[in-house]
């Protein structure tokens, strides 16, 4: 019988598969997507947030545990399990050597990705390169992989895993890791979760999905219906303000609009609705999707002038350009008088200071509601640019409750052989909010834990006399390894 079955195909699933194989288990990974779309949301990532007490390779200065924890505490508003959060934080300090051992390469913080050189390690080639590196390592080590293999249900008995089903096919294993993501690409589920707002709108009908179209939450729904303990609010998600022209699925990083802190954001009534400069962008960018979702029509516009150009990562689509504020209002379809008034009031409220986008500077507004706390420069230098924004959902936070061993819980009791990692359990750490790179930290930490624990559970079932097989080290393939990969 197979030792460990991994359900999912992203970072957490691959980390679990590799770790279980390193521990001597036979491993099969079931990826719902076809090969060309493998990797789930991880293919769209670009970095991981890492704790470190001193400069390390691509990371400068220090980012100690307590600062990392306080950053997470701030963005979640305290809706986090500190024990599990600190496991992920501490694991992030040592994971890069393990990742390099499986072919992942890093590079310094990208130009335009402000404030991340100290906190985030970027993947050379982005998330797609990371996924491909892990698959090459999995192939060398003899991890079997099947594509176009969506799991739709499990066989469970008293909280124990017995088998999964891909259509009518039953696949048994001694232990299982669930890493199949959230439900963000199930538009009906999103609509059900968000419901109708006070204006009679169905907000989710205007959402775009930044990530994979294959995260439909099928396994998550089955587990919740089967009595697994849940965690998280179904309306909470990693939700970013993205270009309204982005595709419905798989827009990824390039659709994000990163100039919010350098200008102002207005809604359909041409009114500002939040402090654009309250904190550094990597700590606050993920609140803007939810803010836009709360606006009429779930749409807003980010507005900048020529002074902001070159200070942010440019989006894939050019913005609407105009030579005057009035002309920009007409081009954006906003009420001209209201828009001119909003910009004029903002400009008049800006107080002189020393502008510095690399720190929390003293350029702020005075007597304006909502205020702009930092980086408040008048929007007065043509050409002016406007970018239409929609809520872009990355992944949802409703998930399975786990413990420090990544074990799935039923009625408060941990399963002996069923584990979860990645977005399926990220809600234990992320009750709300987000800070750049923390999702990959959670997935990497708990993916490795889940894989190791699943391998241990498998050994326990085989009995004390069972011989522990030795996994082939990364980089060294055997004929059996190649056969397993080819068969996948």
UniProtKB/TrEMBL annotation:
GO function term, MF aspect, one: oxidoreductase activity
Region described as Disordered: 456-488
Cofactor field: FAD
Name of protein: Tricarballylate dehydrogenase
Residue span(s) of domain FAD-dependent oxidoreductase 2 FAD-binding: 3-430
Pfam families assigned: FAD_binding_2
Top-level taxon in the UniProt lineage: Bacteria
InterPro entries attached to this UniProt entry: CobZ (IPR012831), FAD-dep_OxRdtase_2_FAD-bd (IPR003953), FAD-oxidoreductase_2 (IPR050315), FAD/NAD-bd_sf (IPR036188), Succ_DH/fumarate_Rdtase_cat_sf (IPR027477)
Biased composition (Low complexity): 456-480
Key words, A-Z: FAD, Flavoprotein, Oxidoreductase
Naturally occurring in which organism (per UniProt): Quisquiliibacterium transsilvanicum
């Amino acid at each position: 019988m197979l030792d460990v079955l991994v359900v999912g195909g992203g970072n957490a699933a691959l980390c679990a598969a590799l770790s279980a194989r390193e521990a001597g288990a036979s491993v099969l990974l079931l990826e719902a997507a076809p090969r060309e779309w493998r990797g789930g949301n991880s293919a769209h990532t670009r970095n991981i947030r890492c704790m470190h007490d001193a400069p390390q390779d691509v990371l400068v200065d220090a980012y100690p545990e307590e600062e990392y924890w306080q950053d997470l505490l701030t963005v979640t508003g305290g809706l986090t399990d500190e024990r599990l959060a600190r496991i992920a934080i501490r694991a992030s300090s040592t994971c890069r050597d393990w990742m390099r051992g499986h072919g992942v390469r890093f590079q310094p913080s990208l130009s335009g990705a402000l404030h991340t050189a100290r906190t985030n390690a970027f993947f050379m080639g982005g998330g797609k390169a990371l996924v491909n590196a892990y698959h090459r390592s999995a192939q060398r080590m003899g991890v079997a992989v099947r594509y176009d293999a969506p799991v739709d249900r499990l066989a469970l008995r008293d909280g124990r895993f017995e088998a999964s089903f891909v259509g009518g096919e039953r696949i048994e294993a001694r232990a299982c890791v669930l890493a199949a993501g959230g439900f963000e690409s199930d538009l009906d589920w999103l609509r059900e979760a968000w419901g109708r707002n006070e204006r009679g709108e169905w907000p989710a009908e205007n959402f775009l999905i930044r990530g994979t179209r294959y995260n439909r939450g099928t396994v998550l729904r089955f587990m919740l219906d089967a009595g697994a303990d849940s965690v998280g609010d179904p309306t909470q998600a990693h939700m970013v303000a993205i270009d309204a022209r982005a595709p419905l699925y798989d827009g990824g990083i390039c659709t994000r609009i990163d100039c919010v802190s350098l200008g102002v954001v207005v809604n359909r009534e041409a009114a500002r609705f939040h402090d654009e400069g309250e904190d550094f962008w990597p700590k606050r960018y993920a609140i803007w999707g939810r803010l836009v979702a709360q606006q009429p029509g779930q749409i807003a516009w980010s507005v900048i002038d020529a002074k902001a150009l070159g200070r942010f990562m440019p989006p894939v689509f050019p913005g609407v350009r105009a030579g005057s504020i009035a002309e920009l209002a007409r081009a954006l379809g906003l009420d001209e008088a209201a828009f001119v008034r909003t910009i004029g009031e903002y400009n008049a409220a800006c107080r002189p200071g020393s502008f510095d986008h690399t720190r929390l500077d003293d350029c702020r507004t005075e007597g304006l509601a909502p205020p702009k706390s930092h980086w408040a420069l008048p929007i007065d230098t043509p050409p002016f640019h406007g970018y239409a924004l929609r809520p872009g959902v990355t992944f949802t936070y409703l998930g399975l409750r786990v413990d420090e061993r990544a074990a799935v819980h039923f009625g408060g009791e941990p399963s002996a052989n069923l584990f979860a990692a990645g977005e399926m359990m990220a809600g234990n750490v992320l009750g709300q909010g987000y800070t750049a790179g923390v999702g990959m930290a959670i997935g990497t930490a708990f993916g490795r834990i889940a894989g190791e624990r699943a391998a241990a559970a498998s050994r326990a079932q085989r009995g004390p006399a069972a011989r522990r097989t030795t996994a082939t080290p990364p980089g060294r393939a055997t004929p059996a390894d190649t056969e397993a990969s080819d068969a996948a």
